[in-house]
Amino acid sequence: MDLKFFKKSIPTLIVMAIFSFIMIYAIYSLLTPEKKLPVYNPSDVNPKLVDESVVHIRRNHKVADFKLINQNGETITQEDYKDKIYVADFFFTRCMTICPVMTNNIGKLQEVFKNDDAIMFLSHSVTPVIDSVSVLKEYAIKKGVIDGKWNITTGSKKHIYELARKSYFAVLDEGDGGLQDFIHTENFILVDKKRQIRGFYDGTDSEDIQRLITDIKILQHNSKD
């Protein structure tokens, strides 16, 4: 008699178990808020990193429109990064200190997100006169750059330096993008699909690279909402 009762109760027990699991998951979700990355405006960043012309801006900051030339001689603009999450950095091919480490780390990021078309990378040469298209092409081949995924770019020095200082807040030093001006930074900048800055990372630090991978995944998840 008890065995028959138990057999009859199995469906009820299964339903109760499923219901309990759903309730536990719902309560856990409510008590564990979804992690969201901050949106950085000029006023949120170390003033030394922000050009004085934009330091007062407290909201709605976006990366400015840009026009660059990549390793294949193609014109690259913000339209190529429309609805993309991307990581930006600043380097030069003759750099023998931090740049090789940074480039190798972007290579690792490229490998992690190789099959995700929503994730891209954008490297800006800070010595654009030296880093011609042919130089960048050779560098890209050497570093395993995937065309269409990672653009290594040259262009107007003044334009690139203005992007670094007024859009990405990538450097500490001031300057005008002139002949004697030079920037050198290890910063990686995470940009979302709305061209908003969502994080800053040390491109030479392995722990920061892992943090960047985590943050990209968080941004991916939040972008689906």
Automatic annotation (TrEMBL):
UniProt record similarity statement: Belongs to the SCO1/2 family.
- Could you tell me one molecular function GO term of this UniProt entry? metal ion binding
- Kindly give the Pfam families that the UniProt entry links to this protein: SCO1-SenC
Protein name per Swiss-Prot or TrEMBL: Protein SCO1/2
Q: Which InterPro entries match?
A: SCO1/SenC, Thioredoxin-like_sf
Alphabetical keyword list: Copper, Disulfide bond, Membrane, Metal-binding, Transmembrane, Transmembrane helix
Q: Where are the bilayer-spanning segments?
A: 12-31
**Residue pairs linked by disulfide bridges in the UniProt entry:** C95-C99
UniProt binding sites for Cu cation: C95, C99, H184
User: Which Gene3D superfamilies does the protein's record reference?
Assistant: Glutaredoxin
